Amino acid sequence: MAALRRTAASAWRLPSLARSFTSSSSIASSSRRPPLAFAFDIDGVLKAGPRVLPQALSALRMLHGDNPYKSQIPYILVTNGGGVSEEDRAARLSKELQHPIQPHQVLQAHTVLQSLTKLYGDKPILVIGGPDKPPGGVRGIMNEYGFNDVYTAHDLHHSFPASWPFTRASPDQVRSNLPDLSSVHFSAIIVFHDSRDWGRDIQLMVDILRSRDGVFGTESSPAELKKREQIPLYFSHGDLLWGNDFPVVRFGQGAFRVAFSNVWQKTTGLPLEYTVFGKPEKLTFEYAAEMLREMCGGQDPAKVYMVGDNPESDIRGGRDFGWETALVSKTGVYREAQGEPKYRPSFVVDDVEVAVREAIEREMEARRGDIAPSSSRPVTMIFTPRSMVGHAVTLLLALVLITSSLVAAQSPTTAATSSSSNAASSSSGSASGNSTATVSGNSTSTASGNATSTSTTLSQYPTASIPASLDGSAAAPAPAATGGGGSKSGPGDSYIAGAGQTRQMAVGLGGSVLVAVGGWLIV
């Protein structure tokens, strides 16, 4: 029987960020509505395990003013990681990323648990997972969130050593004023962070859920379990996998939930009821949007880009919430060899630096009206340094051909023989198996022959396309003729500028376009 999944009740309102984070952001302090903002995952995007990715430093430099806007761009960090307070994480990231990160810019998986304080702030709760160092650190964070009666697996294990006889409880982790647990009625179980001891924690959680009135060490009958409501169970996130500096992805809290759910069903025959926070859940993205809104002086950014490495959490959550999404394919969970991701992003890039640059370029071009708004553009792959060098070379060749054709057009010999050469060049161009460049009015286009589809060597993503407006390789519009007697002719002809000069110009420009387009496709 499939596990049931509770949804966050609409009554769970986000706590005021001012209550949790007192400092204010200097980013986007202007009263104007910011044109765009970013939400970044951390693991696999900015860091690989303990190592900071060099592309992250470049991306943050752009966000802190080294960009075409010449201003700071608002951003937050949205991670399904955690285990420490937002203040500690912000201080650590500030040193690692070499830019000031404020606590109100950090949204961890368990940050949103503050929404539960109205339900359980003064009730006994069992908290599972999180680091053991410093001792009592997890309990302290939950106390800061507003939970005043917190117990951990260490407390239960210490009070009842036989409950998990395979290891010994750590005395330094035990609650200082630990009461007699036979008088404690647990009202909820909250998986704060990844379990450090799956076997022990699964056993203790099953014990609490099967208990009579939430008292550890008691047991309800199967008939009683079927009649009464299950004690509420919460998971701070649902990531099945996550990436660090190990070459193979690791199991996350989502895998722990799957394991626990199966043990529960095998033990009781009942479906497990639970609530999941973190990405891709809507409540987490609502919380993130509120953080950005407060950073931007109460205004929503015109566009938000979610940059992540996990299609199941980052891309799915961002898409469902109406944000643009960028999937990095070289530094985190997702790899090109996995094929097309289940949840399609706005675009796929190698790393976070390219993601930020592409997002800024998209929004600037959209604001200029040069291209369609980013929400309507296809998934694209972004140019590499190698391809950019190739584009520069082809553009240089095109300029050389244009210059030579213009010089040739001024020659008397060219003018005298232009009539016959026009016919020859027109017929030979159409007879060849290659595409024929035509100049009509002030625009250039390509005819049949070599199709202008993107080469598969350019794309790491199925059905990707690269608009010419992004790499600058599209030919410039043909200049209007200035000679006497200028007039428009049919297809294949341009402006007639004097005695046959335009045929030379058309051929030169057409050749230039072919060189530029051909080089673009090859590179």
Automatic annotation (TrEMBL):
Q: Where are the transmembrane segments?
A: 388-409, 505-522
Which Pfam family would be a valid example here?
Answer: Hydrolase_6
- Biased composition annotated in UniProt, kind: Low complexity: 413-457, 467-481
Q: Which InterPro entries match?
A: CDP-alcohol_PTase-I, HAD-like_sf, HAD-SF_hydro_IIA, HAD-SF_hydro_IIA_CECR5, HAD_sf
Any GO BP: glycerophospholipid biosynthetic process
Which residue ranges does the record annotate as region Disordered? 413-495
Q: Which GO terms describe its molecular function?
A: hydrolase activity
Any coiled-coil regions, as ranges: none
Identify the GO cellular component terms for this protein: mitochondrion
Q: What is this protein called?
A: HAD-superfamily hydrolase
Which species does the entry assign this protein to? Jaminaea rosea
